[in-house]
Amino acid sequence: MSDTSPQGVLVCDKPQGLTSHGIVSRIRRWYGTRKVGHAGTLDPMATGVLVLGLGRGTKLLGYITGVSKTYLATIRLGSATPTDDADSEPDIFSEPAALSAVTDRGIFEGVSALTGVIDQVPSAVSAIKVNGQRSYARVRAGEDVELKARRVEISQFTVLDTRFSVAQGHIDVDVEVDCSSGTYVRALARDLGTSLGVHGHLIALRRTRVGAFGIDDAVTIPEDLDTAAPALTSLAEVARTLLPTVHVDAAEAKALMQGKTLPTDRSPEQGDEVAVISGDELVSIAEVRAGGALKSQTAFAIDLA
């Protein structure tokens, strides 16, 4: 019997104040299914694009997690918080003279220094595991956690607007950031403030793109969930945005699903992964073997009867 449960990907616009897990719980209720996951956590204070996989769509989440992302953010210069963002209260403040000395040129130079390939130390209050335990859990238990720097790429870090409120003890900087997976925008806020000698933290964050999925593709999740759930993006359509594709006929698809190696001259280089599609169905993610042969790595168990 064919699986009639929801299968595919949903792009939602996460509201502020909810965790990514909270969104998963809502989607489970909305679509009446337990098998739901997300590709890349957004902190509770953040809004914007959160990509969710339902059913076999969860098998594609690992490929989506690693794509580049775009954010709109507001950095507050003049103070720091334990979490490097507005989820905690400021506990370190700049000297007024230092804040008064900050200029547009200084901000531009600080942003430029954080653009390109950089080694970034994530916030200690993050989900990174240290000896099997989340870093934030160790911090909350009173430990002094120092995380190792990670290499990330900031392909764009643009200042959109700057509002000087020195008398109130801060300067707010609106920015747009294009970055690789694994980048912490709140760490950029912290490091920009540090470079200017005035401290800094993030007070607003909105993710506007995850790979090929933009905010214009995102749906708003209703509070009451009485509204009919929208159609999901198909597995094949999503796979086409993530990997090179190889099209096969029904007999070839069945052979792959049975674990057989499929000879073909329609594939990319040896070692690459490809999305194998038959008709409008995603058959599998396959590895290209010697001679261009395909071997299924992740089967999507479509009905081939």
From TrEMBL:
Against Gene3D superfamilies, the record matches this protein to: Pseudouridine synthase
Q: Enumerate the Pfam families for this protein.
A: TruB_C_2, TruB_N
Substrates-to-products reaction catalysed: uridine(55) in tRNA = pseudouridine(55) in tRNA
Ranges where the Pseudouridine synthase II N-terminal domain occurs: 28-185
**What domain of life?**
Bacteria
CDD domains (UniProt xref): PseudoU_synth_EcTruB
For this protein, what is the EC number? 5.4.99.25
The cross-references to InterPro entries, in alphabetical order and at most eight, read: PsdUridine_synth_cat_dom_sf (IPR020103), PsdUridine_synth_N (IPR002501), tRNA_psdUridine_synth_TruB (IPR014780), TruB_C (IPR032819)
Q: Which residues form the tRNA pseudouridylate synthase B C-terminal domain?
A: 186-227
Gene Ontology BP terms: mRNA pseudouridine synthesis; tRNA pseudouridine synthesis
The residues annotated as the active site are D43 (nucleophile)
Q: Which GO terms describe its molecular function?
A: RNA binding; tRNA pseudouridine(55) synthase activity
Purpose of the protein: Responsible for synthesis of pseudouridine from uracil-55 in the psi GC loop of transfer RNAs.
Say which family it is in.
Answer: Belongs to the pseudouridine synthase TruB family. Type 1 subfamily.
Q: What is this protein called?
A: tRNA pseudouridine synthase B
Give the species this sequence originates from: Brevibacterium sandarakinum
